[in-house]
Design a protein that fits this description.
With about 180 residues, this protein is of the alpha+beta class. The protein has six helices and seven strands, in the order H-E-H-H-E-E-E-H-E-H-E-H-E.
Length: about 180
Amino acid sequence: MSEADQRIDMSKPHWRPACTSDLPAISAIAARIHPDLAERPEVVAEKMRLYPDGCRVLVAGEDIAGYGLTHPWTQNRIPPLDGFLERLPDDADCLYVHDVAVLPHVRGGAARDYIAAVAELARASGITTLALVSVYGTRPLWEHLGFRPVTADADLRAKLAPYGDGATYMLRDLAAT
């Protein structure tokens, strides 16, 4: 493969590390994709500060067309919506995919590519599970990407309530893939 073939085709949408100057674009995308689940920019900035390796933006041409926020967490504990984490748990046993939002015109495989990168990040950290909350009817997408729903007891249902009707807590076992 030539050196030119190995370089990223910058005309194609691609993920890069997020930085604080991306916060206005991230907030605008969140308001469009997750209008009922918006989080303050300072909450997003905290996630970027606590775990920069898991926070990325999708660049399409000159524009940011999506973002993904992931951080170490503990299974079956759902971070509060629009709440500060304060610190990452010392006993983290999963990478929690807090949010993936991609504008419709660039969706063809963008979430898959982000999850593949996050899975590699987890494996490199010795973590064998990814976790997330599926919202807005996205459960089939996440199932296609290897996540499985967790049967929700009363405590888990209470934690899911702020995420809206149909919110589903899901895990993906990386050891099996």
